[in-house]
User: Which sequence fits this backbone?
């Protein structure tokens, strides 16, 4: 299989990254619109029935959920932060990928980009716990459905990204040496 | 870099221009300039062989060692 160009693994990855980037931007926009809409509509929510949702087998009135201030805002904010961290990761990966398609991935800038990806993955793990805590605060009925366990595969992925960043640093040094070898 | 390149001095002694040397050894003028100004990180044996052949000298005539701190190879931080 070709390394670059049409039909290569790189081209498929580029399509996947571009799609993920667009989806995440839309998700970030949706979270922002939902947050603004909910916060603006709060004064108009009456005590009347607004429908109900089932959380972990328990029926909860939507109007009650929307009046649980500031748990609602905390949930929306943490969800927004989660999607924003994902956008940062995909954005940096796209920048790394651009250097790959230009045939020169071992640039010093990519070391910093991979470190940002690693730090964002750490932020994602932490924000993930915040999201769960906020949801639990907003809807204590969901206690049975939310688990606070350590995501080992996530932490191993973070380790792998930082190792890759160091590999890229050495690659950038070798590239510089090769450029200045006469 | 504690390694100094004496290309300038030898070129003057041989009354040869950098352009002429570049033509003879098959290395670009830009690369020879990097070598001459001491910015090169390494030199291939094949390049050294060509330079010694065309300048009729020994590797020791082209290079000399001056004790000093090594170059900062870690200047690759992207931040």
Assistant:
């Amino acid at each position: 299989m070709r390394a670059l160009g049409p039909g290569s693994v790189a081209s498929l990855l580029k399509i996947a990254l571009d799609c993920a980037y667009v989806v995440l931007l839309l998700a970030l926009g949706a979270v922002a619109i939902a947050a603004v809409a909910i916060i603006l509509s709060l004064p108009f929510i009456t005590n009347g029935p607004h429908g109900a949702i089932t959380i972990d087998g328990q029926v909860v009135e939507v109007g009650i959920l929307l009046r649980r201030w500031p748990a609602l805002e905390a949930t929306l904010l943490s969800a927004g932060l989660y999607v924003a961290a994902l956008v940062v990761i995909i954005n940096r990966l796209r920048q790394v990928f651009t250097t790959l398609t230009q045939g020169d991935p071992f640039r010093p800038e990519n070391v910093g980009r991979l470190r940002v990806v690693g730090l964002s993955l750490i932020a994602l793990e932490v924000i993930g716990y915040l999201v769960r805590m906020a949801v639990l605060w907003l809807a204590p009925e969901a206690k049975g459905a939310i688990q606070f366990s350590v995501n080992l595969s996530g932490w191993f992925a973070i380790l792998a990204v930082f190792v890759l960043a160091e590999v890229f640093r050495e690659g950038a040094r070798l590239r510089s040496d090769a450029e200045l070898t006469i | 870099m504690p390694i100094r390149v004496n290309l300038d001095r030898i070129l003057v002694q041989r009354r040869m221009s950098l352009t002429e040397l570049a033509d003879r050894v098959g290395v670009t003028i830009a690369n020879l300039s990097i070598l001459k100004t001491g910015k090169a990180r390494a030199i291939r044996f094949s390049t050294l062989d060509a330079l010694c052949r065309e300048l009729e000298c020994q590797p020791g005539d082209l290079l000399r060692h001056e004790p000093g701190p090594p170059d900062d190879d870690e200047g690759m931080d992207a931040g």
Q: What stands out?
A: The mean pLDDT of chain A is 83. Chain A is about 70% helix and 5% strand. Helices of chain A lie at 9-41, 62-66, 71-101, 108-138, 152-179.
